[in-house]
Amino acid sequence: MEPNSLELKSLELKSLELKSVEAAGLARCPSAERIGFARLTTMAFDGTDLRPLRDQLISKVVAGTAGAGEGLDLSLITQLLGDKRAGIAIQAEVLAFHQLYRSPCSVEQPKLRVLALAAAIDMGGNTPIEFLLEGSAIELQTLYVVAGIELPVPLPDHDVAIVIASDSEECREALRKIDRAMSRWPRPLLNPPQLVRNLDRDKLHGLLCGIQGLDIPATACVTRAQLSEVAISNIGLADVAAELQFPIIVRPRGSHAGVGLAKIDNSVMIAQYLRDQPGQEFFISRFVDYAGHDGLFRNYRIALVDGRPYACHMAIADRWDIWYLNAGMAFSQSKRLEEERFMRTFDGDFALRHQGALAALVDRIGLDYFTIDCAENKDGELLIFEADNTAVVHNMDSPEVYPYKSPQMRKIFEAFAAMLYRRARHGQEHAA
Fold it and tell me: For residue 228, which of 265, 192, 280, 182 has the smallest C-alpha distance?
């Protein structure tokens, strides 16, 4: 049977599209399908027992019928079930033979193709971009940049790329590889690696220090040996960090969500702290008492999308070492009402009040997308705890308990998608 005119036209368009892809130095590469980070994390968040799915995937691995995507899903499930070491080991085995993965898309014919450049690290070490693309018409493929394997030539086809690896020791080689390839990258590339590398806590302090209306505590990276010397009073705290004096806060380098975080008032407490911490490198920072007039501490997460700030959450607690999961927000209607008010009035209140500091912060950091965890100090300045490109921004919270959150999250997701469309369109116009 002869093809009709519509079929011929479709074949011609596909041929032209393929030639365009090839001309750009790209290729249609086979990608492994997976359940993905967002779906599996949401299942765990909702209390779903992941062990039956884990056992099913293990059976397929043993039988030799598991695909690469299923292997990567097994790695994530294992981590979600609390066995980080085994999950990372599974991931390493899978990524050794396959590096490109496709996440579920909400439409059959995507309007945009995004290539995320990830590092081989634990589940919290890359931007959880699947959440940000939730419900969009955007196809996401993730290319893992792993040790001993160069970036593919030609690169997988995409309209826009984004680096999702973090500024952590495990990601350094991946960032270097991407950086070396940037000069020949055929499409717009967001969150370039040389800017991601500025986010570690000590470098961030140097980058943001001096911004009017912004307070970022002096931070230094010190070794276990240096802290041990301070603990036995062989040297003073000023000998390892000239800008610091007690009290300080200390945390293992690379830790997040309060893991290993402690307030240290004197050298004796350093010795006690080190007995419980096996790490070899630590960040120490100036302690800031940022309690409000009512004695409560308020911690904010703000997403910066293409230079514009968006409220992600507000945690309220009677403790300084606060993050959302230890603030008890689900058990306090008054706290949730304050968070709702914070989100509803954000543009005309918090963002307006700190407009200058936020604009200067965005300019110095320079990334297309990142988040900050922050507060307000007693002088009303924007107090920065952390800037990160891998913090979780999600829409998993119960709409019954948090009815105000879903509209706010969708606003962030729509802004993120709009940024990707805009950058891809600019890249096409520039190429033309």
Answer: 280
